[in-house]
């Protein structure tokens, strides 16, 4: 039960991250690149401060930083730049679809094949997610944006997979944020465009970085120790649905029949994939 509650809390943190991002960008309080830079900076500052107060040092030069910080940078950069040219719903669908495929593939190559029930559950959940997020009207996919979102999905999948080997979730997450900060900042600033961020934008980005990203990612590394990679991949399909539900409850967005049906498919698919049968 404890693992279930912590996993739900982590998914809610990820969904809240999405809501804060939408609040800042859709309201014009920030542009995507500026939001991402401040988000990583706030996460690095808060997490590093907590670790230094507790342990006195950060494992910055651990070999795990190559995969951890590198994949975090890839995710942040690809995610932020892709949404400049990609529909939000389609972007989320590409992102989480790539995460599923990558984590399932890596797990299979390592010798742990997913069961038929896990594959079926993931397929049902992904189908439900596609039903909710698929853009209405004519579909125009920007190839650069799609490629960047695919890169972001691969980055997040790697970040999740290497989390199982992190001995200290908080220290590892803090070090990843600190090492990823200069790479992410330089790459995002190089994309061009004037820096645009209001006081409200700074507040939302700082909250996203310090709490829903920083602490959420640390908690994710904590629960990853107890989850199989396949389960970790599937449960993340709940994040876009939780974000949309949060938008309905907090932002006054419409709750459609399409959302209700799609959410049912996503949750049912996740349940099929992760719940074990109890033998009689």
UniProtKB/TrEMBL annotation:
It is a multi-pass membrane protein. Keywords: Membrane, Signal, Transmembrane, Transmembrane helix. It is found in: Membrane. The keyword Transferase does not apply. The chain crosses the membrane at residues 34-53, 119-137, 143-162, 174-195, 201-220, 232-251, 257-275. Residues 145-274 form the EamA domain. Its main location: membrane. The keyword Cytoplasm does not apply. GO terms for cellular component: membrane. It comes from the Bacteria. It holds the Pfam family EamA. Residues 1-15 form the signal peptide. PANTHER family: AMINO-ACID METABOLITE EFFLUX PUMP-RELATED (PTHR32322:SF9), INNER MEMBRANE TRANSPORTER (PTHR32322). This is Aromatic amino acid exporter. It comes from Ruegeria atlantica.
């Amino acid at each position: 039960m404890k693992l279930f509650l912590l996993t739900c809390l982590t998914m809610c943190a990820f969904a809240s991250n999405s809501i804060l991002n939408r609040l800042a960008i859709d309201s014009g309080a920030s542009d995507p690149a500026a939001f991402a830079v401040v988000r990583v900076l706030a996460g690095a500052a808060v997490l590093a401060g907590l670790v230094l107060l507790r342990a006195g040092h950060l494992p910055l030069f651990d070999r795990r930083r190559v995969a951890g910080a590198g994949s975090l940078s890839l995710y942040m950069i690809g995610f932020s730049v892709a949404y400049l040219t990609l529909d939000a719903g389609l972007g989320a669908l590409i992102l989480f679809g790539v995460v599923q495929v990558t984590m399932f593939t890596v797990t299979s190559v390592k010798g742990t094949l997913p069961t038929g029930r896990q594959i079926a559950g993931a397929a049902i959940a992904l189908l439900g997610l596609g039903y909710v997020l698929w853009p209405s009207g004519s579909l125009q996919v920007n190839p650069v944006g799609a490629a960047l979102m695919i890169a972001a999905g691969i980055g997040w999948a790697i970040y999740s997979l290497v989390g199982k080997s992190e001995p200290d979730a908080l220290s590892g997450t803090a070090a990843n944020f600190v090492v990823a900060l200069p790479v992410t900042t330089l790459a995002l600033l190089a994309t061009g465009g004037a820096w645009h961020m209001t006081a409200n934008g700074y507040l939302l980005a700082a909250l996203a970085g310090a709490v829903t990203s920083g602490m959420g990612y640390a908690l994710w590394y904590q629960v990853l120790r107890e989850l199989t990679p396949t389960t970790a991949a599937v449960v993340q399909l709940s994040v876009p649905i939780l974000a949309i539900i949060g938008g309905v409850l907090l932002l006054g967005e419409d709750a459609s029949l399409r959302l209700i049906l799609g959410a049912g498919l996503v949750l049912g698919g996740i349940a099929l994939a992760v719940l074990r049968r109890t033998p009689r």
